[in-house]
Amino acid sequence: MKLLPLTAVAMTMTFATVSCSHRASEHLASLNVAYLDTTVAPGADFYTYVNKGWMEAHPLTAEHARYGQFDILNDSSENRVKELIANLGTTNPEPGTVAHKVWTIYSQAMDTARRNREGATPILADLKKIEETPHEGMEDLFLWMHGNYASPFFGAGPMEDLANSQVYAMYLSNGGMGLGDRDYYLLDDERNTAVRNAYRKLIATQMQNAGYAAADAARITDNVMKIETALAQKTLTREESRDIPRMYNPRTFAQVKEVYPNVNWDRFFIETMGIKSPDTLIVTEPEYLAQADKLMGSLSDREIKDYYLWKYVSQAASKLSDNFTQASFEFSKVMSGVQELRPLWKRAIDATEGALGEAVGELYVAKYFPQSSKDYMLGLVENLRVALGKHIDNLDWMSDTTKARAHEKLDAFTVKIGYPDKWKDYSTMKIDPELSYYENMHNVGMWHQAETYAKWGKPVDRTEWGMTPQTVNAYYNPLANEIVFPAAILQAPFFDPNASDAENYGGIGVVIGHEMTHGFDDQGRNFDANGNMTDWWTPEDAARFTDKTKALIAQFDEVEVLPGVHANGRYTLGENIADQGGLRIAMTAFLDAQEKKGVDIKSPEAKIDGFDPLQVFYMNYANLWANNIRDEEIRSLTTGDVHSLGCNRVNVTLRNIAPFFEAFSITEGQPMFRPEAERVIIW
Q1: Where do the Peptidase M13 C-terminal domain residues begin and end (predicted)?
Q2: Which architecture does CATH list for 33-81+348-422+463-678?
Q3: What is the model's pTM?
């Protein structure tokens, strides 16, 4: 689900299917039966039964904190992009062309020798500017910092108005904390203390890399931690941040000026965004912004400058010399447990796609995404839409009034598949091989920032995409009521034209159903068919929905992911609802498709390599989440990711689904079994 700047974007899987041609004798294409661990009963641990062999065959390498099926596809996508960019280099592209811009960014990202010669030189003039600003120039310095996309203390920018998604509203949000989540600053347990200490080390090391003496770096570290900890004290918890209506707080411009007086708001909008002061602003976290304003009015110039210095160095570090990169990597080892830096070429691909993602995507689509795949997906989505409609009709906890409104929303879904209808125009982006890599990437960042600010005062462009075509993922955007499936996800094990219906419905079908369900999860349900935040539920239906979600939260909360560490069912609620909905909806669509084709799925002829089609469906779903993961990454994801761990997306979710029990003859007494009275079915 996409909700910025209110919450982190949750780019989630989805899957919907149309029928594939049924063969007289089908064989598994996406699944590998050699990976099944037949020493483990499906009713004991289904995730391990399906994935143990895969996990043993794909041990973690030093560069990965986790490695799974998604990573295999990401590797494939990265290798394709690498080849496409390398081919650009052989054509000697003309300066000023998009091809030349792509090649320049990639080449400079690969040129560590030049960056190591330059060291911190590309940012020294800006650091000097911060240091030498007199007291009377501190307001100018604050505006300059925001204008250079470092965004100290808070974030600001236009986004669709939650109450009227056809127009842009101006949002003021949090964003001044380098660690993101408040718990890292405020909790004193072993894990959070270790992260804080690593962050302090990162700040001190990077400031010394930027030329500061150890004593100065230590002072900067102390001041940064003082400020960011104070901000964390007034930040919503990760669970509270899922309450979207709570984060929609309209204020008049006069109110903002009165309540937060330590920012010159007239100058802020004119000089950082180039727009006149908005009549109304949306404050996502009023207490946080009040704390930021209080700090700006009470801190010394030295404290504020130290904070600015770190904000500037932090955003620049990945574009500078290897010592900056190594310091960041040392911090990531504590956060995720990764043991080896990703290969340079992969980091260069990331930078290039971040700069000119759709330009690369256009090349990717031309070579790797046939029209037949797009046509197939369109059919799949319609099959899943029909199936979800049936589920809505059959809900025993929802009134006819709310069901009718749910159908209105379902019927209004916009579907985007493969790639945008119109590509982003990068002609005005300035990239010069004579400039340093940092200078070019800074110009890229300024271009993207200006592109965002230019939306102000214009109608919302519903053709925009939040992912590039070469991204292995999918998402639902409630503000446009749209489901989006980039080209790169249409590969095995999600989708394979040679696979059985059961495999494809258990793969890309579940993905489509997942994204559709996001329209009706704990966040998506707040938005109507037009993408506006509207309460279209009867109070009684809303209460029954909430009761069901409480039960689902409890199911995940009880899971111990590491000794003493439990899953967070509240924070992952939206994704858990979507996983369950995706599975149930995709199964209905699969059964409908088989019935239309006259296939008796219970007949011996329907077996696929000896397995019943329903078994294959659930096995391929479990196969999607096969992965190995380090303990540090488990802790990090449990803190900061809205998705449950892969093993729980399989075992906890499936324990609510009766057809799964029937498919594998799972009965009471087995660990995977859950009594009917304790099962939670929402969609």
Answers
A1: 473-679
A2: 3-Layer(aba) Sandwich (3.40)
A3: 0.90
